Amino acid sequence: MFLEIVTPDEKVFEGEVESATFPGSDGSFQVLSDHAAMISTLGDGDIKFIREVNKKDEETHIAVSGGVVEVLNNKVTVLAEKIIKD
User: Fold this and answer.
1) pTM of this structure
2) Could you tell me which residue, 49 or 84, shows the higher pLDDT?
3) What span, in angstroms and rounded, lies between the C-alpha atoms of 34 and 67?
């Protein structure tokens, strides 16, 4: 499935992923390929996604503070209010 993460200032990530986990306002949830259509608000926490890099699974974490996620037809769009950088 295709994941795109954007903020008001920049595009943070876009690409194919195997799964993604989000910090929902009411608890974390995971999205896999062929997930039902949905829209959810995000709380503070890490977006975690797994993608294949050089035939190995690689997990990436991006800390966000609020936002919205939309899942539709194997495309996941995240509109994050703010990315929290280390």
Assistant:
1) 0.92
2) 49
3) 22
3-class DSSP state for residue 62?
strand
Residue type, 10: E
Nearest 5°: phi and psi at 54?
50, 45
**Ranges of H-type helices in 1-86:** none
Q: How far is CA 17 from the centre of its chain?
A: 10
Tokens encoding 39? 């829209």
pLDDT in tens, 21-55: 999 999 999 999 999 999 999 999 999 999 988 88
Q: Confirm if 18 and 50 have CB atoms less than 8 A apart.
A: yes
